[in-house]
Amino acid sequence: MTTPENTPETTIDELDRHLASGGRVLDVRNPDEYADAHIPGATLIPLPELDQRLGDVPSDRPVHVVCQSGRSAQAVQQLIEADVDAVSVTGGTSGWSESGRPTETGSS
Asked: Do residues 45 and 71 lie in contact, with contact meaning Cβ atoms separated by under 8 Å?
C-alpha cells in the first residue's frame, strides 16, 4: 500500500503539458466544488465514489489527480492499488487557477 509520504506528485506546469498532449485529469472533489470551478476537461469522480467507479477512470495513460485539500493523495493511493498509473497534482485546482490558467464552471 502506498502511503502519503511516497504518493507520486507532479506540478501544475507538468499537468498543463500532460493536458496539452491529450492527457486526462481526474477531479476527486465534491460536485458542488467542481461546479464552482474546475480544470477544463476534468472528469469528476468524488473521492467517496472512486472505489465503485474505477471503471470510469482512464487507464490508457497516466492519470493526474486534483482536489482542493489533500484528497488527491488518498485517491492516488487507491488508484495505484488498482494498478492505475496516477499522480497527485501539487496545488490542485486552486493552484491551477492561481497560476492564471482557465477554469470552467458548472456540473459534469
From this structure: no
